[in-house]
Amino acid sequence: MLPVLFAVLQFSSASIQADVASSRVAAVEYDGSAGQTQIATPRFSDPEVSIDGRIDESVWDAAPLLTGFTQYDPSEGVPASQQTEVRVFVSDDAIFFAIKAFESDPSGIRATMTERDEVTRSNDYVRVILDTFNDQRRAYAFSVNPYGVQQDGIWLEGGSSGHRGGGSFGGSFSRPPIDDNPDFIWDSGGRLTDQGYQVEIRIPFKSVRFAELPVQSWGIQVIRRTQRNGYQESWAPSFANQPNKLLEAGKLLDLRDLDPGLFMEINPVVTGSLDGALDDNDAFFRDDPTGDFGLNLTYGLTSNLTLDGTVNPDFSQVEADAGQIAVNERFALFFQEKRPFFLEGTEIFGLPRQLVFTRTIVDPITGAKLTGKVGGASVGYLGAVDEAGDDGSTYVNLVRLRQDIGAASTLGAIYTDRTRSSADFNRVTGLDARFVLARRYTLQVQGAGSWDRDDGGATQSGSLLYAQLARAGRGLTFSGLFEDISTNFSPESGFIRRLAEAHTQGQASYSWYGGRGALVERWGPSVDVQAYWDHDAFWDGNRWKEAEARLTMSLSLRNNLSVWFTARRSEFSSPADNYDGLITRPGGVITSFVPDKDLFDGLNGFNVFMFASGWERLRGRISADLKEVPIFYGGDPVDVADSWGGEISLTILPSRFLSMEAAVRHAVLNHKDGTRYSSATIPRIKAQYQFNRALFLRGTLEYASAERGDLRAPDTGPLESCDEDGCEPLDGSDGNDILVEALLSYEPSPGTVFFLGYTRQVEDSRRFGFEAVQPTADGLFAKLSYRFRM
């Protein structure tokens, strides 16, 4: 017995000594440029690491060293302009990274104390991409600037930047298909040094989903962006002719017995508000203060399945949607989803055409969601009870399945249901697939059908078909698209800007490259041709109702300055019966109005856009356009106008704590005789002081001025719309609205927040008059929430 006990004690002592001595052993180096991207991942129990960006703990000396970064933009495959070193290991409950970003000119580092999720706009940063299911389709993206400020999101191959429903084909690291809205709990620290900057990262296993396997591998990629010159570099070499960037990633091997432990989050939310508005007598009054309590729950069923629930959720908006000019718009404007409950797991519901748009759930009182991955299948369910509207509750159910096929392809199904009563519903079912072919081509297809029943029991059905083929490449890229949406297709749970149409589009571009540091680092032309038909007209073989051809020349210049020049030619037409009910009165005689079709042929337009992000204290973009555009009534053209306008947006950074943004959008439409039809101007000023990574104070001032004249025919005078009740002139409109916002925000970690904000809306009696202004609404609100994690 004694020899056995002695042997056990001897073995335990040796294990402890080996763990302690591991920090004294030279780490294994993995040179990405030499293809050494398969990492034997060490595991250290209870490492004593302070996440402060100092990288001075001995455990880092034993961690694998990732070196050999190569540039992928603007030059491709050449050694990185600056050296970067990464170390990585796992513990019992987290994965750790230490990154040294060397810089030959430390004064050129772009770093500010900005708010969370604003890192990549104007700061230098490093980004760690973890493909935790090792499926080359979905990954976590963790970005950190030199001060350790965080930005995170989900990389979804086949999605578009910012997600918002898909539509692009893979991405590049220059324009990644990342949804930045989901927020995860992780630790980071960073600091500037006389050799560049250093960051440390700790990502708990509770914060990510991964497969339930005793031994597994994760995909890993690390990229670095230098803001002053726009250079982008990666550890595993990246090439533009690969449409699926996750296929290029390296591997973290031999990850054993990963256990997130009990994963439960409880997030109580308390909100309060005091609102004011004008009454019917134009007197300003305030309601009594109101308060509310909500509760969000998250439970990890397994390491790869998560159940979310909410009761009386807080879906308040912290800040108003950014101003958009809508004087001559034919279609609905798109506003991004910002509400936290809907954002978790939202990438599973991504589709080429957006059949799930959660902002259609306007005022939910309760909701539940199940998301995750089982084997090669991603699953998602979202249910909610929406009390918006006057017709009682709407019950919403969304179901999504997506199966991995081969190395990078997928096959998916979708079902959406909005039921208001047993005889009033909208339902959509669909299939979609994404295929990566020959490691260069991507094919996406989608088909869907809808069934819509009204209160009277009548049911209408419709269909959607979509297909797009794209080629990735460093020089030549192209894509072709076909889409057909039948007349009665109605996706009430989604967002599709144009319905009941057929659409074809072809794009091609070619790029030439200068050497690194050349005045012109990349340039080349692109062509975009597209056409739209009414659904029935397309299948009857009739001519398109709208077509456009665009030629663009792009230039990427030294020091992160980009310029685009675009020339376009377009034409429009509508069937004569679309104008039924429109009349004019030339000489006092009532005359039906049908425009001359030749009026809308051969409309020309020109645009220039410039973006600059290389200066230390100033970022900006400028665009200007001059074009001929139709004036629309509904979706049909009635006249042609000369349009000119543009936008100027500047970001000023006086210090690392203070940022200011000034922007103005302006658009003018003039009739061909020189008279004014419409004018819109939206100036916006925002200033923000970031006291530290968690606390900031922000103020915003926006003035939205828009005026539109009466609609009239080109030669015969004002237009009127007539029905059985008579005729009404199509009068113009005007508005001069001022929005003032102030927000104090304290957010030490996602879900744990305190907001105190004030918003005031004011109407100006005269365009930029500032003489007789009247408040129309205001609101004071507060929000307090805490995210308990177990």
Report on the architecture of this protein.
The protein is mainly beta. The chain has a domain at 26-256: Immunoglobulin-like. It has four helices and 49 strands. It has a 24-stranded antiparallel barrel. The longest helix is centred in the first third of the chain and has 20 residues, at 2-21. The relative contact order is 0.09.
Classified by CATH, the class of the domain at 26-256 is Mainly Beta
Distance between the first and last residues' Cα: 42 Å
Low-confidence stretches: 1-25, 160-171, 317-327
Shape: globular
Indicate the radius of gyration in whole angstroms.
29 Å
Roughly what is the average pLDDT, rounded to an integer?
Answer: 88
User: Largest sheet at a glance?
Assistant: 24 strands, antiparallel, barrel
Q: In the CATH classification, which architecture of the domain at 26-256 applies?
A: Sandwich
**Please, how many helices?**
4
Percent helix, as a range, is under 10%
CATH topology name of the domain at 26-256, in short, is Immunoglobulin-like
Helix/strand class? mainly beta
Portion in strands: over 45%
Beta-strand segment tally: 49
